[in-house]
Design a protein that fits this description.
With about 775 residues, this protein is of the alpha/beta class. About 45% of the residues lie in helices and about 15% in strands. The protein contains 32 helices and 25 strands. The strands form six sheets. Strands 1, 4, 7, 8, 11, 12, 13, 14, 18 and 19 form a ten-stranded mixed β-sheet that branches. A six-stranded parallel β-sheet has the order 22-21-20-23-24-25, with helices on both faces. Helix 21 (about 500-515) links the parallel strand 20 (about 485-490) and strand 21 (about 525-530). Helix 10 (about 265-280) packs antiparallel against helix 11. It is globular and about 90 Å long. Its EC number is 2.4.1.1. Keywords: Allosteric enzyme, Carbohydrate metabolism, Glycogen metabolism, Glycosyltransferase, Phosphoprotein, Pyridoxal phosphate, Transferase. Homodimer. Dimers associate into a tetramer to form the enzymatically active phosphorylase A.
């Protein structure tokens, strides 16, 4: 069968024990066995470290995709880097984020198996020699790539795929050739330089930092993986007469490479280098093979996130790849020039090489010209990709562009994290939904069933009590489990607008202070997420959230009506606890900035209602469930564009909305930072003078919409009916559906629902 290679610099796997038991159908058996040993399985599960080899959405998507590819019986491999240190652990000290190293391998990793027999060399630096026999890349430095395999079990189908992560090893003669008589000790210590490649995950989400070590990581995973792919292609006979396959004609029919964002974009020039320089394939043939093999998923439209590497860095680190990129770009521009004679500006816009004070390689452009398919991750995002980000490329090859709306695996994000809900669903509609989430539609028949309404509300209340107990045990914070759990958990970023949430919290607080005797719908506002260590504004936002909590949570006038909690060290294992307990899910990015979002889907399937803008997959969630069953507010993409043309003026909103002005004045006057009154001047200055994400423009609509949330929450039966309708309409957002679409429309393979026979039975 055709093999699928999913290349990603991030795999945000979380814990593995419970997921493995669920997918193998062993959870009850293990539970019973452990219980008979006088142990508690849940206590055991809490000991496992998260495999935090990702930042957020992109890395977690890769993990969900691995689960779905195995469950759908695809011959798929995940390839990435075995970072010694994953995403940092977050501590909050005096209200500020403090990072500590995530030494997740300290006690070993029982799920991985080192494969030294498949170790491969990766080359860096050196120079290019053009000889009559062909091009040679010589005088390189070698780093070895050691593979570690982690099994990826499908759900009860006896399929186990592999995630192969590469670790960097110095060769034994590393730096000893040069030293010869010199300092042997120094040379051995320098092995660290090579092995640093797989040391640590870069902790940036949606932000490009052009560091040489990061470029090394990107080439490292690509070079090792492509050697592996080609070794496997050559050794598989596929009904081929040759003892060793030398003809690459059929390569694209046997191999599909999916690039998770531009991070593995070097796959394109590296495959060209192997085909042309090593395997002596004709250039044009090699280019056809490369394009038919690779496909590219775009994950963001934020300009600061796009990878643009300095040519000077390539020249030094990967000189042959630079030559290949120049040649590919020339071919591409020749084609564009022939189709649009004299349109010099179009050539400039479409070039892979950006001219300027510092010449740069635009990796997204490289991916578009080197792939047969480019996809966005939600319908609205794919439209923006076609109509703005890659508009010129879309005009050239419209057939290349597709949409593949993201999804989440219902195994981890329903069965594993919310067994109570999964049970009452299975009671009503059977277990088929676990591998075919569209079957949740059958719950629409029970929307007025009083028993089911009561059961759904009961499960949510139990989840809330359990999470409240966890918060009290871990962080010594007491919360009111009868309050509305209002949750925003995601990476801290200006575009995600945690500041809008803050302004609502302050507004609620002011209303309570103003009218202490009035009855309020009690809320616990929970905000969680990590800030990139170098992202000053994001760190200030965390300090603001903790400072607001400090004031509100200690004000006797407020009591149980309002609490603001910052959830420390948000990660996969914490998401599995908080999401099933949430009543309200906040998805409030400025329209046109969140490519898809996947947390939004997890909350929907777990029985929270969504307050959100028409952005990312929220649009399709509203379409599936009916807009009246979500709390949709604020500007749409068209409104944002119109406001950009007119010019966004924060001052107008500040002066026109008294409650907004009061909140902003409190932040700037030091009401929330009495020890340091000027603490938040950077935030206020940004909001008033250069807010790219137009927080104030959506404030009024947001506050009004939150009022409607309160109204509905006071009618528990109606609230729960909306919850059931949301769950029933969440089936589209399974990663099984997403992967089925990738398989059929991009990779050209058919997923199979049938389990293969278990290992104790003969096949066929």
């Amino acid at each position: 069968p055709q093999r699928i290679y999913y290349l990603s610099l991030e795999f945000y796997m979380g814990r593995t024990l419970q997921n493995t038991m669920v997918n193998l159908g062993l959870q009850n058996a293990c539970d019973e066995a452990i219980y008979q040993l006088g142990l508690d399985l849940e206590e055991l599960e809490e000991i496992e470290e998260d495999a935090g080899l990702g930042n957020g959405g992109l890395g977690r998507l890769a993990a969900c995709f691995l689960d779905s590819m195995a469950t759908l019986g695809l011959a798929a491999y995940g390839y990435g880097i075995r970072y010694e240190f994953g995403i940092f652990n977050q501590r909050i000290v005096d209200g500020w984020q403090v990072e500590e190293a995530d030494d997740w391998l300290r006690y070993g990793n029982p799920w991985e198996k080192a494969r030294p027999e498949y170790m491969l060399p990766v080359h860096f630096y050196g120079r290019v020699d053009h000889t009559p026999e062909g091009v040679k890349w010589i005088d390189t430095q070698v780093v070895l790539a050691m593979p570690y395999d982690t099994p990826v079990p499908g759900y009860k189908n006896n399929t186990v795929n592999t995630m192969r992560l590469w670790s960097a090893k110095a060769p034994n003669d590393f730096n000893l050739q040069e030293f010869n008589m010199g300092d042997y000790i120094e040379a051995v210590l320098d092995r660290n330089l090579a092995e640093n490649i797989s040391r640590v995950l870069y902790p940036n989400d949606n932000f490009f930092e052009g560091k040489e070590l990061r470029l090394k990581q990107e080439y490292f995973v690509v070079a090792a993986t492509l050697q592996d792919i080609i070794r496997r292609f050559k050794s598989s006979k596929f009904g081929c007469r040759d003892p060793v396959r030398t003809c690459f004609e059929t390569f694209p029919d046997k191999v599909a490479i999916q690039l998770n964002d531009t991070h593995p974009a070097l796959s394109i020039p590296e495959l060209m280098r192997i085909l042309v320089d090593v395997e002596k394939v004709d250039w044009d043939k090699a280019w056809e093979i490369t394009k038919r093999t690779c496909a590219y998923t775009n994950h963001t439209v934020l300009p600061e996130a796009l990878e643009r590497w300095p040519v000077s860095m390539f020249e030094k680190l990967l000189p042959r790849h630079l030559e290949i990129i120049y040649a590919l770009n020339q071919m591409h521009l020749d084609r564009v020039a022939a189709l649009y004679p004299g349109d010099i500006d179009r050539l400039r816009r479409m070039s892979v090489i950006e001219e300027g004070d510092c010449k740069r390689i635009n990796m997204a452009h490289l991916c578009v010209i080197g792939s047969h398919t480019v996809n966005g991750v939600a319908r609205i995002h794919s439209d923006i990709v076609k109509n703005s980000v890659f508009k010129d490329f879309y005009e050239l090859e419209p057939e290349k562009f597709q949409n593949k709306t993201n999804g989440i695996t219902p195994r981890r994000w329903l069965l594993l994290c919310n067994p109570g809900l999964a049970d009452i669903i299975a009671e009503k509609i059977g277990e088929g939904f676990i591998t075919d989430l569209s079957q949740l539609k059958k719950l629409l028949d029970f929307i007025d069933n009083e028993t089911f309404i009561r059961d759904v509300a009961k499960v949510k209340q139990e989840n809330k009590l359990k999470f409240a107990a966890y918060l009290e045990e871990q962080y010594k914070v007491k919360i009111n489990p009868m309050s509305m759990f209002d949750v925003q958990v995601k990476r801290i970023h200006e575009y995600k607008r945690q500041l809008l949430n803050c302004l609502h919290a302050i507004t609620l607080y002011n209303r309570i202070r103003c009218n202490p005797s009035k009855s309020f719908v009690p809320r616990t506002i929970m905000i969680g997420g990590k800030a990139a260590p170098g992202y000053h504004m994001a760190k200030m936002i965390i300090k603001l959230i903790t400072s607001i909590g400090e004031v509100i949570n200690n004000d006797p006038y407020v009591g149980d009506k309002l609490k603001v909690i910052f959830l420390e060290n948000y990660r996969v294992s914490l998401a599995e606890k908080v999401i099933p307990a949430a009543d309200l899910s906040q998805q409030i990015s400025t329209a046109g900035t969140e490519a898809s979002g996947t947390g939004n889907m997890k909350f929907m399937v777990n029985g929270a209602l969504t307050i959100g803008t028409m952005d990312g997959a929220n649009v399709e969630m509203a379409e599936e469930a009916g807009e009246e069953n979500l709390f949709i507010f604020g500007m749409q993409v068209e409104d944002v564009e119109a406001l950009d043309r007119k010019g966004y003026n924060a001052q107008e909103y500040y002066e026109g909305l008294p409650e907004l002005r009061q909140a902003v004045d409190q932040i700037s006057s030091g009401f929330f930072s009495p020890r340091d009154p000027g603490c938040f001047r950077d935030i206020v200055n940004m909001l008033m003078n250069h807010d790219r994400f137009k927080v104030f423009a959506d404030y009024e609509a947001y506050i009004k919409c939150q009022g409607q949330v309160d109204q509905l929450f006071m009618d528990p039966r109606e609230w729960t009916r909306k919850v059931i309708r949301n769950i029933a309409c969440s089936g589209k957002f399974s990663s099984d559906r997403t992967i089925t679409e990738y398989a059929r429309e991009i990779w050209g393979v058919e997923p199979s629902a049938t389990a293969i026979p278990p290992p104790n039975l003969p096949r066929n």
